[in-house]
């Protein structure tokens, strides 16, 4: 009975560790995606500003 309990405990501990690792991986992926999105937004804003400045240079 003790051997069975030990095996069950190991299975639970490994399962919990795997779930924690999976959660951490998902969090890291979300952070990376957010950084990519923020970079894309910043690049788009910079490009828009360049276009606006270029357009204004024709008028002034």
From TrEMBL:
Q: What is this protein called?
A: Uncharacterized protein
* Organism, scientific name: Citrus sinensis (Sweet orange)
Top-level taxonomy: Eukaryota, Viridiplantae, Streptophyta, Embryophyta, Tracheophyta
């Amino acid at each position: 009975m003790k051997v069975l309990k030990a095996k069950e405990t190991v299975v639970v501990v490994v399962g919990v560790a795997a779930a924690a690792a999976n959660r951490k991986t998902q969090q890291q992926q979300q952070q990376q995606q957010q950084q990519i999105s923020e970079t894309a937004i910043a690049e788009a804003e910079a490009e828009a500003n360049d276009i606006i400045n270029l357009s204004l240079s024709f008028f002034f």
